[in-house]
């Protein structure tokens, strides 16, 4: 059945290109921005250990399932789920799983490009030496002043949106593939350069100990559930990106081997980012658990004080921008693929429509930080950034967990073991049965646990 379907959008030229593309989708702001401060807030090594277990038991099985569905369907997530539901004799309502992913990706792109625009703007700030002389107060004031200026943030939001649209409009081979071939090796080189600097700060041992020495006394139940949630979100699961990338995957490539490689590379980037960031933090007397401000407030202080700070500050924010860029192109690809397949639009016109609408919606996020913010409570926590918080909650707390849960249930319970074993290329071996138990029972339970926790009910 799989061989009879081919993607009208093209195919990755090799398994390695798919690995680079999927890793680029997975490696985003979450790895370089979120992971270090989450580890910092939850006792370092203890959090990392729980995170790695969750990657293996939840992230990898669901990612294998999402790639499996994508390659078997060879279409956009909506059409893939419709075709596979029909093939399995299941309800056509399973197509809603595809809709959840496409809409979630579109909504995420609307605010993701605003945040990525901050990183892009900070490249210029770092190059211009703006960080020199920064104190805690002046760095915080500069950041608040930047995100609170709608004109400036709209400019950078627009520039990042255009950068993303340019790549996607050029197609699988000429756009997505060429971009990841350049951006991913560049990202790894930049990360190694920053790691090299961190090794020479005199605080590298302390940074490594903080990241890898487990202190379970500092790991709360909330920390465990945060590790579980981050393990799920860091692999870009539930938003259709991995599914649509899987639809371009060569038929002979091993899904299991490829998934483990992607998970390894994604985790490696997060850990190396931590090893690069924490020695700089400690060397400058900063707080490792400083929250999201670690990147945009604390680190600029360090870059403004340390030798070579102009160069390494620039490299860091270029790294952050590249990570966001590779993720953004995967986030909007499902919606673009759907418009090409179902509305007969050219890829360029479909990209213009999706990026244009996401850009327009993103203006609400711009204004959430620029004067239109309002406060409300969700799951016992105060939210102060209005529409941005609403979009983040709707996607992160509802759509993506539901999408991931549905992927696991469809692959584990709706598709036959014969079909999933055939697509995985493993036969019904011992390893296949381990995956099947994980995707049917363990992964759904983990996602459901996080879902209930994020709603404040667990």
CATH secondary-structure class: Mainly Alpha
Question: How many individual domains?
Answer: 1
Count of separate DSSP helical elements: 18
> Could you tell me the strand content as a percent range?
under 5%
What would the keywords be for this entry?
mainly alpha; Amino acid/polyamine transporter I; 18 helices; 76% helix
Description:
The protein has 458 residues and is mostly helical. It has a single domain, classed as Amino acid/polyamine transporter I. The chain is built from 18 helices and two strands. The protein has helices spanning 15-26, 29-41, 45-73, 77-88, 95-127, 136-147, 150-169, 171-199, 204-212, 221-233, 241-246, 255-283, 293-305, 309-343, 347-369, 386-414, 417-424, 430-454, and strands spanning 376-378, 381-383. Strands 1-2 form a two-stranded antiparallel sheet. It is globular, with a radius of gyration of 21 Å. It starts with 14 loop residues before the first helix and ends with a helix.
Short description:
The protein has 458 residues and is mainly α. It has helices spanning 15-26, 29-41, 45-73, 77-88, 95-127, 136-147, 150-169, 171-199, 204-212, 221-233, 241-246, 255-283, 293-305, 309-343, 347-369, 386-414, 417-424, 430-454; strands spanning 376-378, 381-383.
Write the layout of secondary structure elements.
Layout lengths: L14 H12 L2 H13 L3 H29 L3 H12 L6 H33 L8 H12 L2 H20 L1 H29 L4 H9 L8 H13 L7 H6 L8 H29 L9 H13 L3 H35 L3 H23 L6 E3 L2 E3 L2 H29 L2 H8 L5 H25 L4
Antiparallel strand pairs: 1-2
Helix pairs in contact: 1-8, 1-12, 1-14, 2-10, 2-12, 3-4, 3-9, 3-10, 3-12, 3-16, 3-18, 4-5, 5-7, 5-14, 5-15, 5-16, 6-13, 7-8, 7-14, 7-15, 8-12, 8-14, 9-12, 10-18, 13-14, 14-15, 16-18
